[in-house]
């Protein structure tokens, strides 16, 4: 199966730009996820790939086959693209049995009766629904409907499978199970998959690569580890996982060649030593430091603050402590900065020390 | 979507991926998907049907000769003639007065009933609610006959009252009398609007008023009634418009008293006069058309607003019905008197009249039982034929209009057809064209069109004209059902490989079957009562029940008119009952 390439697509509704210059390529057999907050344009992108919406400009291709091209204008209708699509609402045809739902795409492709039966059995077996083939959609639970929708999406071996939040109507526990078998199924079928979700846990656990969307723009494309460990922008860092974003300024006296930079945190007079990156701002410039809450170690030790050989130690006040079962979550203040942190043990405060490794700090330039 | 340039035809399809089944292949007539042909066909047919009666009327109004005659010229003299004709001013005034009185009477009866039945503890509220809807299924013509049988100068109750009091406090053959009868026909409209608005509104407002100490009557006055302003306004405009265009009551009650209203003026000019002045008729029709179009435009604007402030919030706070204590019995008397004397008695009397030779309080009607009235109808072939014609026209028409309406809804709501909005507007526009004008317009259109003569005077002409009148109802019956079908159902089919037509035929049509049956039934009941366009269009062989009834009425055959009306009611009830059963069975399955 060939790769799916979405090149520079732009789309606006009634003058509001919804997608701006979206550009990504999904490799053969890859599980590719579009992740982003609600309203950022994920579904619109998927609809453009499916042919249900047309971009204003750009190109969409599968292999050498051009599905859409802004100039000269070409648009293959949805039925000419041979894709599979599963909706959040499942969209099973209510007047047909499960088997008939799966049979329609095969009938449209003039597949012989016996072959139809074989393919339907095959697809339903893959999703463990073969025993319910003669039921109507309204006689199935949400989770079962979701499996049938998936079977309908793969029964005719489409080139690419498109999934728009297929798990979001399931309860939390079901969603965990569904995630696992979805991943297994995708591996087994080996189909190129584009998956839309706003749930970062789904995205992280399922995907080969993730494309992070925000406000109609593509922020970063990378593996789950890349997206989590080295988010391209503070927004990505803030969206994925719990991340403190602290405003500061690069210290003038930072030695130009050192492995680390000193960042002055806001107006607190405190400093944080962070690992230098290629994109780090120059000394004197404004910066944002991203600090994941689970990477902060809390300790009651009252060691002196300031520079240590390999870690930062900052004193903070405990403002709030909440128990979430597995751990305690803290809201802390350093001067006028608020910091979220967590710990397996309970600290009573009122003051506490934060131990932060320079390599755990994410450094971004900040526009002022 | 609507502003996009249509995509160029797809390039030739490459071979399917190895192991895959590929995409289905579809024929591409004219180099584009076949849906393009279907969309344009639907659009052009609808546009032609809707414009066919209107354009000849407009054209004729500015011609000095009949529009099909050679050698005519453009002129404005028809309008000058119309507005300088001595009577025309008083015709307009009378029509206005009639319409205003009708609206006032109908609202005065319907609004209190809606409040009583929807919002207060009322004895047998459900039963009354059902009975109040009945007149919708009975034509105003039949209702007028029923009223004359009971309240006319020689009517049953009139005679009884004259016997008792020595005088009669009412006279149907006056403007207020006519308005009252028309109002009875229109009460269901106002009642349904107000009752639906009350049923859909948020009752927490009322509960709040109760909780700060407002009594039930106070709550009704200051919370419930103000909430009814939007539906009252809308229903009022609708009734006003219907009253302006209605023909039956001005013809049956107004003409004998020398009261000419707008519609009866058109009738006199076009049919009664020996040598009709086509130009004048065209100008008058244009004037009436502009009036009704104006009214419908105002309605459309208001409806847009009204929907915005109807508060539909689910049924979280199901209303506690207000208990208005002793007032309840006053209300009960009001509703009861209206239902019995306004609707039930005239219908019962009309049916009884059909089976008697005379209906008078002086003789026990059961001594005068006879089937002669029916015999007269069945003895004379054209009368019998008119019944068959009505049934045929209504049946074929209802099927055809339901199919066209479904096509229009699907193209307008479920496709990327470029003129979807225009198509929707076109399908709803006959709503603004009075039945008489549809008749006049098609009459001229067939006279004007090459080959039109073959159609004029046949049942086909009636089916087309009645069908155009009914198209908005079909649209209204089917369109809401598509809104309940999520767009994902079509999208899933498209992506799975169905083109637009396959999606429609395999998915959407199947899901719309109940709505189509409901539409069929609605159109059928509407068409079996329809007669106004037939006044102009019907030939000797293509009379319908309504035109035959008017014919018999002018001959003084009251009994046979009653018999004909009884047959019409019976046929309507029979089909409604059968369809009801069918729909119910479908629903249970
Ligand atoms: N048909 C439309 N007309 C106008 N605006 C639209 C239309 N479809 C989507 N939008 C707008 O485009 C933006 C992106 O919508 P989209 O459905 O792609 O978001 P999403 O990322 O899928 O969000 P969610 O996670 O909530 O599903 C939204 O701001 C939405 O309001
Ligand atoms: Mg979405």
From TrEMBL, chain A:
Transmembrane segments: none annotated. Its EC number is 7.6.2.9. Residues 4-240 form the ABC transporter domain. It comes from the Bacteria. SMART domains: AAA. One of its GO terms (molecular function) is ATP hydrolysis activity. InterPro entries: AAA+_ATPase (IPR003593), ABC_transporter-like_ATP-bd (IPR003439), ABC_transporter-like_CS (IPR017871), ABC_transpr_MalK/UgpC-like (IPR047641), Mo/tungstate-bd_C_term_dom (IPR008995), P-loop_NTPase (IPR027417), Transp-assoc_OB_typ2 (IPR013611). GO terms for cellular component: ATP-binding cassette (ABC) transporter complex, substrate-binding subunit-containing. Keywords: ATP-binding, Nucleotide-binding, Transport. The keyword Nucleotide-binding applies. PANTHER family: GLUCOSE IMPORT ATP-BINDING PROTEIN GLCV, MALTODEXTRIN IMPORT ATP-BINDING PROTEIN MSMX. This is ABC-type quaternary amine transporter. It comes from Streptomyces himastatinicus ATCC 53653. The lineage of its organism: Bacteria, Bacillati, Actinomycetota, Actinomycetes, Kitasatosporales.
Automatic annotation (TrEMBL), chain B:
One of its GO terms (biological process) is transmembrane transport. Residues 92-299, 387-579 form the ABC transmembrane type-1 domain. It comes from the Bacteria. Keywords: Cell inner membrane, Cell membrane, Membrane, Transmembrane, Transmembrane helix, Transport. It is a multi-pass membrane protein. One of its GO terms (cellular component) is plasma membrane. Pfam families: BPD_transp_1 (PF00528). The chain crosses the membrane at residues 38-59, 66-84, 96-117, 137-157, 177-200, 232-253, 278-298, 329-352, 387-411, 432-451, 457-478, 507-527, 561-583. It is found in: Cell inner membrane; Cell membrane. Residues 1-15 have a biased composition (Pro residues). Residues 1-21 are annotated as: Disordered. Belongs to the binding-protein-dependent transport system permease family. PANTHER family: INNER MEMBRANE ABC TRANSPORTER PERMEASE PROTEIN YDCV (PTHR43357). This is Putative ABC transporter permease protein. It comes from Streptomyces himastatinicus ATCC 53653.
């Amino acid at each position: 199966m060939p790769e799916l390439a979405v090149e520079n697509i732009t789309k606006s509704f009634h003058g509001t730009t919804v997608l701006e210059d979206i550009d990504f390529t999904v490799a053969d057999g890859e599980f590719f996820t579009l992740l982003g907050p609600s309203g950022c344009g994920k579904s619109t992108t998927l609809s453009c790939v499916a042919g249900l919406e047309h971009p204003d400009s750009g190109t969409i291709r599968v292999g050498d086959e051009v599905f859409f091209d802004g100039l000269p204008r070409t648009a293959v209708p949805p039925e000419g693209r041979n894709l599979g699509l599963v909706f959040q609402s499942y969209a099973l045809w209510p007047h047909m049995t499960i088997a008939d739902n799966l049979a329609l795409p095969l009938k449209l492709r003039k597949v012989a009766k016996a072959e139809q039966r074989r393919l339907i059995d095959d697809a339903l077996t893959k999703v463990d629904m073969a025993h319910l083939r003669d039921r109507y959609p309204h006689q199935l639970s949400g989770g079962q409907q979701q499996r049938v929708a998936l079977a309908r999406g793969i029964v005719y071996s489409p080139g690419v499978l498109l999934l728009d939040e297929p798990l979001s109507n399931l309860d939390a526990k079901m969603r965990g199970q569904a995630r696992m078998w979805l991943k297994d199924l995708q591996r087994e079928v080996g189909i190129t998959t584009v998956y839309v979700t706003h749930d970062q846990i789904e995205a992280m656990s399922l995907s080969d690569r993730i494309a992070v969307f925000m406000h109609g723009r593509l922020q970063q494309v990378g593996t789950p580890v890349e997206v989590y460990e080295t988010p391209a922008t503070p927004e990505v860092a803030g969206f994925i996982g719990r991340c403190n974003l602290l405003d500061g300024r690069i210290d003038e006296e930072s030695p130009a060649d050192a492995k680390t930079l000193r960042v002055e945190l806001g107006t607190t007079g405190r400093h944080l030593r962070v690992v230098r990156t290629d994109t780090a701002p120059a000394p004197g410039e404004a910066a944002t430091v991203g600090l994941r809450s689970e990477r902060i170690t809390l300790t009651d030790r009252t060691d002196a603050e300031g520079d240590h050989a390999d870690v930062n130690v900052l004193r903070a006040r405990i403002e709030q402590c909440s128990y979430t079962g597995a751990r305690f979550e803290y809201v802390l203040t350093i001067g006028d900065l608020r910091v979220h942190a967590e710990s397996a043990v309970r600290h009573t405060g009122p003051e506490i020390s934060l131990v932060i490794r320079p390599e755990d700090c994410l450094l971004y330039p900040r526009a002022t | 979507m609507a502003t996009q340039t249509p995509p160029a035809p797809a390039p030739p399809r490459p071979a399917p991926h190895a192991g895959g089944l590929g995409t289905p292949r579809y024929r591409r007539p004219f180099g584009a998907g076949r849906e393009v042909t279907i969309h344009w066909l639907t659009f052009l047919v609808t546009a032609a049907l809707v414009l066919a009666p209107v354009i000849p009327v407009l054209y004729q109004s500015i011609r000095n000769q009949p529009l099909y005659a050679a050698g005519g010229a453009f002129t404005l003299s028809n309008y000058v003639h119309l507005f300088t004709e001595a009577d025309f001013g008083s015709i307009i005034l009378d029509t206005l007065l009639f319409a205003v009185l009708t609206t006032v009477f109908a609202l005065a009866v319907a609004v209190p009933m809606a409040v009583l039945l929807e919002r207060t503890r009322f004895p047998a509220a459900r039963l009354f609610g059902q009975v109040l809807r009945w007149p919708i299924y009975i034509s105003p013509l039949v209702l007028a006959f029923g009223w004359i049988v009971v309240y006319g100068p020689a009517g049953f109750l009139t005679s009884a009252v004259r016997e008792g009091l020595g005088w009669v406090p009412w006279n149907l053959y006056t403007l207020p009398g006519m308005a009252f009868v028309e109002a009875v026909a229109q009460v269901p409209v106002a009642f349904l609007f107000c009752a639906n608005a009350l049923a859909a509104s948020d009752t927490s407002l009322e509960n709040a008023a109760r909780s700060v100490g407002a009594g039930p009557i106070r709550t009704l006055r200051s919370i419930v009634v103000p909430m009814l302003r939007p539906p009252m306004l809308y229903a009022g405009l609708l009734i006003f418009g219907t009253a302006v265009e209605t023909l039956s009551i001005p013809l049956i009650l107004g003409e004998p008293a020398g009261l000419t209203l707008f519609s009866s003026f058109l009738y006199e000019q076009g049919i009664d006069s020996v040598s009709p002045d086509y130009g004048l008729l065209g100008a008058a029709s244009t004037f009436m058309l502009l009036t009704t179009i104006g009214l419908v435009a105002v309605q459309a604007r208001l409806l847009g607003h009204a929907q915005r402030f109807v508060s539909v919030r689910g049924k979280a706070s199901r209303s506690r019905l207000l208990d208005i204590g002793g007032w309840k019995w006053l209300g009960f008397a009001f509703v009861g008197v209206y239902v019995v004397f306004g609707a039930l008695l005239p219908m019962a009397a009309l049916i009884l009249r059909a089976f008697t030779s005379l209906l008078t309080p002086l003789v026990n009607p059961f001594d005068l039982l006879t089937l002669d009235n029916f015999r007269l109808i069945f003895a004379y072939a054209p009368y019998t034929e008119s019944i068959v014609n009505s049934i045929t026209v209504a049946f074929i028409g209802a099927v055809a209009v339901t199919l066209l309406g479904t096509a229009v809804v699907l193209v307008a709501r479920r496709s990327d057809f470029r003129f979807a909005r225009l198509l929707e507007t076109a399908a709803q526009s006959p709503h603004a064209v009075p039945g008489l004008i549809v008749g006049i317009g098609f009459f001229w259109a067939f006279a004007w069109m090459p080959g039109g003569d073959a159609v004029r005077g046949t049942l086909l002409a009636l089916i087309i004209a009645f069908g155009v009148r009914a198209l908005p109802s079909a649209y209204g019956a089917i369109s809401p059902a598509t809104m309940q079908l999520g767009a994902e159902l079509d999208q899933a089919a498209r992506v799975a490989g169905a083109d637009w037509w396959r999606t429609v035929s395999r998915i959407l049509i199947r899901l719309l079957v109940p709505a189509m049956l409901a539409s069929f039934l609605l159109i059928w009941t509407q068409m079996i009562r329809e007669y106004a366009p037939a006044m102009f269009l019907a030939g000797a062989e293509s009379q319908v029940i309504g035109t035959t009834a008017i014919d018999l009425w002018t001959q003084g055959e009251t009994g046979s008119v009653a018999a004909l009306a009884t047959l019409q009611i019976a046929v309507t009830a029979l089909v409604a009952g059968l369809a009801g059963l069918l729909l119910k069975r479908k629903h249970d399955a």
